[in-house]
Design goal:
Strand content: 5-15%
Largest sheet: 4 strands, parallel
Distance between the termini: 17 Å
Order of helices and strands: EHEEEEEHHHEEHH
Strand order of the largest sheet: 7-2-1-8
Length: 206
């Protein structure tokens, strides 16, 4: 079955739990862009806090389609994000294996936020060993069987309010308290090939 969703930046673990059993993701890029969402924000764990990485965009204040949102390279966000990820996960067990795939996408300097996010999503699916195709949703095709995830995973509300993800603690780098539902790179860098199994076990009704 296919699932329609927004396109997020290095999505939270909950997102991958939600799409886990699907064959195809249909990305809705024709929606109006929304600020302060996972579309341009991801959360990672540093030594003393959870850090939100935010991609600056051009034109996000207006009613503009997500597909037209451009990344603002006048701000030096890319090096900040890459340094933040390296600082957070440089000593993680699987960082040296997986980080080059992530860094390569950053270095491609995509003009559009959707192009950047889509490439990162594709890389994450491969690293998670999930055989799910990624395509753009065509509003003209209504006959296919599909689920609709749009508007469900919201950065402004807790994952525990939804019936998708049940946080299964895994070994993180810092502190004794497990922090759930960070960006999927937290899971990948810390757990490597076990990440898919963690996702399966994190399904609320599995």
């Amino acid at each position: 079955m296919a699932i329609i969703s927004e396109l997020f930046y290095l999505p939270p673990i909950e997102y991958f739990v939600a799409i886990l059993n699907e064959k195809e993701i249909l990305l809705d890029l024709n929606e109006n862009y929304q600020k302060q969402t996972y579309r341009n924000r991801a959360q990672i764990r540093l030594a003393n806090k959870v850090e939100t990485l935010s991609i600056p965009v051009i034109g996000g204040n207006k009613k503009i389609k997500t597909s037209q949102i451009k990344i603002d390279y006048s701000q030096k966000w890319m090096n900040v994000h890459l340094r933040g990820i390296q600082s957070a996960y440089g000593k993680a067990p699987f960082f040296e294996f997986y980080f080059p795939y992530i860094e390569k996408v950053f270095r491609e300097n995509f003009d559009l936020l959707t192009e950047f996010n889509k490439e990162l999503l594709t890389v994450c699916l491969k690293l998670l060993q999930l055989d799910i195709s990624v395509n753009t949703y065509d509003y003209g095709i209504e006959k296919i069987e599909k689920k609709d995830l749009r508007g469900v995973i919201n950065a402004k509300s807790a994952y525990s309010e939804r019936d998708i993800y049940e946080a299964l603690p895994y070994s993180q780098l810092f502190g004794l308290d497990f922090v759930p539902n960070l960006s999927v790179i937290d899971l990948l860098f810390c757990m490597g090939p076990e990440s898919k199994d963690i996702l399966i076990k994190s399904q609320k009704n599995h």
